[in-house]
Amino acid sequence: MTVKLRKFPYPFRGAIAICNDCDLMTRESFQKIHAFLNTAESTEFGDGLGLDIADSVFWYNNNPYEPDQLAYAGLDGKPTRDAGFIRECIEKGRIDCLHAYGDFSHRGGFARKHAETAAEEMEKRGISFRVWLNHGDRHNFQNIAAEYLPSLGDTPEVVMTDGKTYPVWEYHTDITTALGVRYFWNHTLTEILGQDRPLSRTAYYRELAAGSGSGGGLFAALVDKAGSLFPRGSFMSRAAKLTVENSGVPVFGGNDLLIPHVLGDGRPVCRFRRWGHWRTDTSEALGEMLSGENLDTLIRREGYAITYAHFGKRREPAGPLLPDSLVESLKRLKGESENRIWVARTSRLLEYNRAWRAVGGSSVFRAGGKTGDAIHLVYDAGGDPLAGTSPQDETKAAAGLPPVEELAGLTWYFDGDYPPRVIHGDRDADFRENPPDHEGMRSITLTGNYL
Ligand SMILES: [Zn+2]
């Protein structure tokens, strides 16, 4: 008998999330766009697609140039007239990402007290978030620091030249992780289509070069390869890295969707990679990213893609709210979502990917015994990207077996005569049986409920 973990939920062969930064969105544009994306109503863009595409939200908006952007509260903490609408969207699963604590571009103004006030309101209303997306320019001190982007959101204190320690005015990640946020996007953008698949260093540069249509990737590949022959951190290794970066090509740093990360305050979380291009982040560009060719490539590579998208940004601002080319692409995606590409909101894809790594691969099938034939769900801290490694301690903190609803979608090929039981802790987890997939193999999928 064969029991083998499938990469994606049946029947899918690739996965995509349209992960939108809510910049420039108003309540009106949000309603119109999401009616098309999420419902079956007839809309100005055609029949609604009914896809699981969620969005992000600004809690505050302090951008002096974009006063009409959708936001939950004023800087004084008072809910705006759109707060009820936003809560409704969160409840319906149409908003699942916090776009930082809001838009503080051009003017700054974020302080820890804003996080405290937002958290109070969220607790009162039973709102929580799993995903954080950094936003905007250098004035957004609330952002999570990246290697090349210093920021203050996860820095609890600074030591001044006189040796005195001061708490950082903008620090908030103790509050934010307590709200449930575990997946942080801190500007890790990749032009490589398809995360979480085997990708060698050489193949990485080859794909980059093919994507940009330049030979730059090949040069970078050679220099990076030469640098890798020297010890890590040595002068030659660092010189190679610098040369690659100066040629405008990002140095190969793996291709996992989730990357274990320790915040500046020592809290273990995950970062994630988003797919897209810095220079072209408009609606028109999203339409091009979702071309038939790219969707085929994603399936061939059996990869994940969390897109870097801005429904509110237009190359041709005078045109319709969604350009025709993007509407066409989204309809194509709808077609693929029937049985080839799993289209799911960002938080769902990230949660699934984490469960696949932390539980799916380590779970074991045992024939007979006390439970009879059964797949036992086993937690593996070593495989869990969220378990993290604290800077003081090299051992991974065991977060324990996640609740069954976070494991929904895990799928095993199963060729026995009857489906086995699936045991979560000491209870039976609910699953459904699937017909043969494109490889002619039957499988079972966890539904995220207890029997
Ligand atoms: Zn943004």
* Average pLDDT score: 92
CATH topology of the largest domain: TIM Barrel
CATH class of the largest domain: Alpha Beta
Main sheet overview: 8 strands, mixed
* Rg on CA atoms, Å: 23 Å
- Given the C-alpha coordinates, what overall shape results? globular
Helix percent reads 25-40%
* Number of discrete domains: 3
**Beta-strand residue percentage:** 15-25%
User: Which small-molecule species are bound to the chains here?
Assistant: zinc ion
* CATH architecture identity of the largest domain: Alpha-Beta Barrel
What is the number of E strands? 24
Properties at a glance:
451 residues, binds zinc ion, 24 strands, 11 helices, 7-stranded mixed β-sheet, TIM Barrel, alpha/beta
Care to describe what's here?
The chain has helices spanning 27-38, 83-91, 112-125, 173-178, 201-212, 216-228, 235-246, 283-289, 292-301, 324-336, 346-360; strands at 3-5, 14-17, 42-43, 46-47, 55-61, 71-73, 95-98, 102-103, 131-133, 157-159, 165-167, 183-185, 189-190, 258-262, 268-272, 274-275, 304-306, 341-343, 364-366, 374-376, 411-414, 421-424, 427-434, 443-450. It is α/β, with parallel strands linked by helices and 451 residues long. The protein is globular and about 65 Å long. A hairpin with a 2-residue loop joins strand 3 and strand 4. Helix 5 (201-212) runs antiparallel to helix 6. The chain binds zinc ion.
